[in-house]
């Protein structure tokens, strides 16, 4: 056989050479040891305990939400356990003025950005008062249409840029979301305008039941950013320090006018897709589940903090008790929300005067509802 | 006052609002240096700078999402969809997101977005450029849909659309862009959305219509006058919400009505208008309310479009059926 000649142009080689460069960025290994000291974001002890507190709180919120849902006391719910580092450590790099456009699983981030918990519960139950965002809180309601938040984030980021506001728009989708046209349009628009946006892909391995490898031929999801000409990074999504460091860097670049960043966090959702009848045993094995549970973000962060002497069982129990108490209070508050009326729905349709048809219908329903 | 074509009046409306409100932004595909494929944004980038009048990447869904995001930072986007046939590319941003923005935020977020788009047949375009898709957006609660038929109306309605706190779809019939000139005031003026305009008064029959069909209807009315019929032409101007008051007032005066639309019979606004008339004015009617529309096929190939589009003769024929019932 003749020797293969060097090709001047080899698209296969080009692809592989790009793919090989997307190694997973990690700072804290599964044992809670720093394996990448250079990249350590050097959070203070207070910051580290605060981040751990938020992750523990969110794990409890998840457990309580699942059981409240089973009791019929909560509505639509997408479990979060396993994704705490992806969610809370990325959010931890944000400031109050930054704007979050969440997907439907990203309720913890908007709660820690300032959304009162009882409103999150009202949103879950399907009550319009859960979506009346408090004045000055920079969040959008959780997006249901996969990917739509990506193009909207490009718009918020462009708005900040035009106003000269030193803030970023941050949005989240999952591995399935990266197959949507809006995903590509969003990262491409922000790239073209060099807008301050951070796009997070929480790759939890399954889009409902469809495994990651069926979504795309791309070896990593992060590499999709290359085509848009924006910096992209693949991060261990179970490692809170790595997620935080990558997001903080992205924010710094964005604020400095260097445009958007795409971050893929490798993570796993322990629970079902949502509480509306999804059964993960139909598409995942318990071996895979336990493989991922070994990488749990709370276990390794706990080990790291305990080794530093800034976390203890006692402290964790305090957080758990506080979370349970606050959840109880928030449910009580949500229970007190008024019954929704058709006239409420008519009144929130438009700003300003109602068009004639709705005015006519409002009169009819108001009369009916006042009986 | 200046003599303007409809497209000049549209440019003038955008210029006026860019001047009056620093939050107004104009963007879309090729709207910058090129001034839009029809020159609707001619000169605006030069006058107001690339920060306020700008080209976007070629992706309609992205343009819609961009507009939504910009409203969250206080801007009032005037976005262009290059041809309304591309609506399907942006339908989630329009109907799935923008139309629901106030509602799904419990009334918290307003969505002051104006979506301008050329549409309509008779100018020999390739497919997906000429379709009358207004029925699709008019059936989506949360959107207002405006279709002007004259330069004067176009400027006043577009300014109202830009000032509105709710999303407004503003559809510009391509055939009307340069078909005639009209006196248009150079200063700012508004025409309220949701208000029809009686373009011609009459006592025997009401023709209720909008867009390019206003002009076919006026032609038909003139011809019918020669036969001794006095025909009123009501230009809806806004098709969502409808101006029921004006429609019913006209029908109660003439006791006979036809509804004319360029869209297919199954696809448009006419059925809505007929229902409103039968619900509210049936006892005033001396004859059934008939419709003049295009047939229920896909929009035709360009060389055949003129035999497909409704015209003055079709209107006269149907009008006579109703007048002699």
From TrEMBL, chain A:
Heterodimer of an alpha and a beta chain. It is an enzyme of class 1 (oxidoreductase). Residues 313-340 form a coiled coil. It holds the Pfam family E1_dh. It catalyses: N(6)-[(R)-lipoyl]-L-lysyl-[protein] + pyruvate + H(+) = N(6)-[(R)-S(8)-acetyldihydrolipoyl]-L-lysyl-[protein] + CO2. The keyword Cell membrane does not apply. The pyruvate dehydrogenase complex catalyzes the overall conversion of pyruvate to acetyl-CoA and CO(2). It contains multiple copies of three enzymatic components: pyruvate dehydrogenase (E1), dihydrolipoamide acetyltransferase (E2) and lipoamide dehydrogenase (E3). Keywords: Coiled coil, Oxidoreductase, Pyruvate, Thiamine pyrophosphate. This is Pyruvate dehydrogenase E1 component subunit alpha. It comes from Sporosarcina quadrami.
Automatic annotation (TrEMBL), chain B:
It holds the Pfam family Transket_pyr. The keyword Acyltransferase does not apply. Its cofactor is thiamine diphosphate. The keyword Ribosomal protein does not apply. Signal peptide: none annotated. Residues 4-179 form the Transketolase-like pyrimidine-binding domain. CDD domains: TPP_PYR_E1-PDHc-beta_like. Keywords: Oxidoreductase, Thiamine pyrophosphate. It comes from the Bacteria. This is Alpha-ketoacid dehydrogenase subunit beta. It comes from Sporosarcina quadrami.
